[in-house]
Each structure stands twice: as structure tokens, then as C-alpha cells.
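Please go through this protein, sequence plus C-alpha cells, and consider how the sequence yields the C-alpha cells. Keep your notes short.
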Amino acid sequence: MHGLDLSVHIGTKLNRTHLLVGKRTFIFPCLGRTELDIQRTGRQSITVEDSMSMVHASSGKLKPASPLLRSEPAIIAGMAKATLKNSKIGWMELVADYDLIRELIEQTIPGFDNYNDRIRVPGGFRMPLPPTERVWPTSTGKAMFSVFHGVNENVTGEGENTLRLITLRSHDQYNTTIYAMDDRYRGVFGRRDIIFMNEGDMEQLGLEHGDRVDIRTALPDSDLCLEDITVVAYSIAAGSVGAYYPEANVLVPLNYIDKESGTPSYKSVPVNITLRSKEIRAL
């Protein structure tokens, strides 16, 4: 991020991402989804998609934290109006009435017919997902599967007792934004400096639940290390270990990517684990 000439953030509250700045960085605070959004034509609503692919309207009810706050559409449209001098889009008209934005979405994206009408129906409408209706938009008209040839495709790590690291998120986390230090999915509370290990692997390495270890990436010419992490015995596959991201991202080399997709190897990093201390910190 620091190599960018400019970075721009729009957010309802500060988070860790805002610390990753470019040469010039702007952070624009905006109205939250629970706050009233009053524009020239009246109270506005945005649309959201839930985890079941249902799209519905959402309109805030709370008094904004400041009278100076603008909505996200207002901020973006304001920047567009200021910079796109020859644009034929009526940016301020779109801000005055969000229905006009949705009309443009309807004209652009398949499956959003009668967008404004359908979001006002209680419960909203379901996003078009062809496979759930047994429709396969492929060259054959059928579902197509890719064959994985086996774990031997992975680069072999250096050293003995090499394990495979998978980075994962906790319950109280959305992407890389951490809202709290608890993970009720896995029974971890108040901390994130841990590594989940199979008990058989722990026994082989002479480790116990609560030991403090250092984790090193087991790849040629790599000196990546995550220090002073606490071992947690967990029901995870033998040969695999798990740690939270973004903390464990320091173990993922930038050039260790899938050859076809370019995806970083966050789910399969060879690592070596060494004992640092038997002084146990409370879990």
C-alpha cells in the first residue's frame, strides 16, 4: 500500500486498514447504515444482500453522529462531479434520489428487473444464482468439475517435521477487520496469538498444550517468522496447523502463489515449529 501515490478510504469507523497508507491518503467518514440519510427528495434507503443471497432495502433510523457526515453515494458522486468535468451523468440527481441509482443498476446487471419495486416487498428478493436452479452457464450446459491431482502439487518444504499452515479468521472478525478477540467457534477467548495443532503432531514435536513456539516458513531462501505463539491442541488434520490472519500473513511469501490463478498460498504454507518457552500463558 505504501507504494501507491494515492489511497482513499470511505468508512463508518476507523479500523486497521486505515493505517496502511499511500504517499497521500484520504479517509472520508460517512453515514452508517443505521443512521438517517435525508437527501433533497427525502429519506433514502440503500440495498443490502444477506448471507442467503436475499436483497432488501435498508433505511437508518438513528440521528447521524454529526451533521457534517455525508452518505457514501454523496461522497462518491461529489468526487465524480469535481473530477469528471465532461460527464453526462447527473451526479447530484442520483444523490437526491437513490431510486435513480437502482434504475441504472437494473439497466446494467441481469436479474435486477423491477429493482425498486422488489426491494420494497417484505423480505426482498433472491439474487439470481443459476446453479441453485440447476442452470449451468457453461459451454456444455452442465456442471463442470476440475480434477485436483493431489497434494504432491505443493512445493515440498525444507527440513524435517514440516507442517502445512492454513490461515483462518475468528468468529468476531470480518475479512481482516477484527471486532473482538473472541472465537466462540473454536473456544478461544480474549486472544489471537495462537496456533491450532493436532495432538499427534504435538507429541511428535515434543510440544504440549500451552507451550510457546516460533513458526518459520519452510521454503528455500525464506526467513519469514512469527514469534512467541501459543500452542492450542485442536481437532485438526494431522500434518496441518491453523493460525489467524492477518497476523499469520507474515508467513506467506509474496511470490508463493498458484501458477494459474495467482492466488496467494494462504491455505497451504509449509512451516516448521520450534519450542520457544515452556512458560505457559493462561488460555
Q: What stands out?
A: The first helix runs from residue 72 to 83. The chain has a mean pLDDT of 91. The radius of gyration is 24 Å.
